Amino acid sequence: MPISAANQAVDARGVAFLLAQAARGSLDNVGSHADRERSLNNVFRLLRLFRSQSRFKVQPAVVAIPPLNYEAVALTPLSERNVDDVTDAMSSALVETFGQGGAGPLDLIENVLRGVAYPDKFAAPSNVDRENARNFFGALAHKLNISA
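The structure corresponding to this sequence follows.
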């Protein structure tokens, strides 16, 4: 079951918030290695999607709506709500943490995730890089916190 299906109130912002929290926990060595690997793989996918598009460009499917049938009006699926908030929060967290956005900081974060998730295949990240990645995910979680 997708994470967003567990709670009908969770949207793209909520899922990204949970991933940022999981990443911080993984960087702090919380949980088993298998849990950290799984969490960081999901975070890595989010970063790759962010890198590939300036906006996630999620559009609801076009649905023919019969005239005057108000019950047929479709809402944007919960998983697609607030996607722009996620993009804006990620951009802002990159600048806040690294002083710039773009490929450089994303490369650093991705290398840290690889080193933590697969220590036998990739070089262990330096303490400074690990702390910078942790600070990025903290800033991202703070910006996405829906209760704030």
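The two ends are 27 Å apart (CA to CA).
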